[in-house]
């Protein structure tokens, strides 16, 4: 048993506070990880405000890089000393998605079996089965994806972000949206996820990449990551703007990285005939959009959603780390500030201000 500091929310809308957390030694199939860095994601805030469920207390944090410090019986995926990115898709290999060869849809992903607790024994629910705003965390070994490429210490903050939002965005373009060289792609909402989708479109060779947001600063960063055009949809109609930049046709692919009815409809209307749209922003429960069915039919193409960017961590994380090291994917651009574990609650406020892509906790700070 290890006694560490971790960021916990005890009840709906309570502040996220630094608490003593008891982390068990790994049992069969589990790994204990010394956390190096962990990004603050919109989803952590969703947990805090009760938007994910009512299983308080939550141990927050899930966009992490770390070092494996112990493994349980039967673990073959990783060994002690391995540098890893934590993922929330440790695939089971047995569900109907895995059996039909589509493990990125796995319906039965693995987490640690043992629970981390507070000092009084209260069981903690780790965010996305990870709980990495802590000095150590316990996960299923399959949640650890080994980083084979040597990195400098300060690069882990950027690479850890591949554990969630950045991968969701890149995957929405590369996997779900299947961007091809020469295509036109529009991304609506350029926070961490949307900007990553812009970077994914650039990696895939799209030649027209249109970033849409309501905030000019976000649009500037999107340009740094590969956007060829920007639209501030407060002042310009997003659909007309996208059509104008694509010879009046609409984009081959439009990605909605916000997930509200307005942006969904913009994405729906701003695609070319037979064009694709991908929803990667997570709508609040109960959100309803009214779509004219005749247009769904006559427009052709596809409407898909991207869970975690249809990412298979074992396949995609090492490839993306290599793109970063080769200088083709500027993950450093996503690290807006580096903070300590005690500053997570403040980071939620900074996030709401819209001024950052990611605040990243460095546990040693
Ligand atoms: N699908 C997945 O697996 C997955 C994974 C992680 C996060 N997400 C979701 O992706 C979404 C984006 O996450 P994020 O971390 O980038 O959030 P964020 O808050 O950093 O970014 C949202 C961006 O959208 C912009 N925006 C808001 N309303 C807009 C509008 N009407 N038109 C255009 N732009 C608008 C904001 O200015 C901001 O730049 C969230 O819903 C999040 O929960 C999905
Ligand atoms: Zn499965
Ligand atoms: Zn996340």
From TrEMBL:
Its EC number is 1.1.1.306. It is an enzyme of class 1 (oxidoreductase). Keywords: Metal-binding, Oxidoreductase, Zinc. Residues 16-361 form the Enoyl reductase (ER) domain. It comes from the Bacteria. PROSITE patterns: ADH_ZINC. InterPro entries: ADH-like_C, ADH-like_N, ADH_Zn_CS, ER, GroES-like_sf, MycoS_dep_FDH, NAD(P)-bd_dom_sf. GO terms for molecular function: mycothiol-dependent formaldehyde dehydrogenase activity. Gene3D superfamilies: Medium-chain alcohol dehydrogenases, catalytic domain, NAD(P)-binding Rossmann-like Domain. Signal peptide: none annotated. SMART domains: PKS_ER. Its cofactor is Zn(2+). It holds the Pfam family ADH_zinc_N. Belongs to the zinc-containing alcohol dehydrogenase family. This is S-(Hydroxymethyl)mycothiol dehydrogenase. It comes from Kocuria salsicia.
């Amino acid at each position: 048993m290890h006694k560490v500091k971790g960021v916990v929310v005890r009840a709906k809308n309570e502040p996220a506070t630094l608490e003593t957390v008891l982390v068990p030694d790994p049992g069969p199939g589990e790994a204990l990880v010394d956390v190096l860095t962990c990004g603050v994601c919109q989803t952590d805030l969703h947990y805090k405000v009760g938007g994910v469920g009512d299983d308080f207390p939550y141990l927050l944090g899930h966009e992490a890089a770390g070092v494996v410090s112990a493994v349980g019986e039967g673990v073959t995926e990783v060994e002690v000393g391995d540098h890893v990115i934590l993922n929330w898709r440790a695939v089971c290999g047995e569900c109907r998605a895995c059996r039909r060869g589509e493990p990125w849809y796995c319906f039965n992903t693995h987490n640690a079996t043992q629970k981390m607790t507070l000092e009084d024994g209260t069981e903690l629910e780790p965010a996305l089965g990870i709980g990495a705003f802590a000095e150590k965390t316990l996960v299923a070994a399959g949640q650890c994806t080994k980083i084979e490429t040597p990195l400098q210490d300060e690069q882990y903050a950027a690479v850890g972000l591949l554990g969630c939002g950045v991968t969701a965005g890149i995957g929405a373009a590369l996997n779900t949206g299947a961007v091809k060289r020469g295509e036109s792609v529009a991304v609506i909402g350029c926070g961490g996820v949307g900007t990553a989708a812009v970077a994914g479109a650039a990696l895939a060779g799209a030649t027209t990449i249109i970033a849409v947001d309501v905030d000019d600063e976000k649009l500037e960063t999107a340009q740094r990551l590969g956007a060829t055009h920007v639209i501030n949809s407060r002042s310009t109609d997003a659909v007309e703007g996208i059509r104008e930049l694509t010879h009046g046709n609409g984009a081959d692919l439009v990605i909605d990285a916000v997930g509200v009815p307005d942006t969904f409809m913009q994405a729906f209307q701003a695609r070319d005939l037979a064009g694709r749209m991908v929803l990667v922003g997570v709508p609040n429960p109960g959100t309803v959009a009214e779509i004219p069915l005749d247009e769904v039919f006559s427009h052709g193409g596809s409407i898909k959603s991207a869970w975690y960017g249809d990412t298979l961590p074992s396949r995609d994380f090492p490839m993306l780390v290599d793109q970063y090291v080769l200088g083709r994917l500027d993950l450093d651009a996503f690290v807006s500030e580096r903070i300590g574990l005690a500053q997570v609650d403040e980071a939620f406020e900074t996030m709401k201000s819209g001024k950052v892509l990611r605040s990243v906790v460095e546990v040693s700070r």
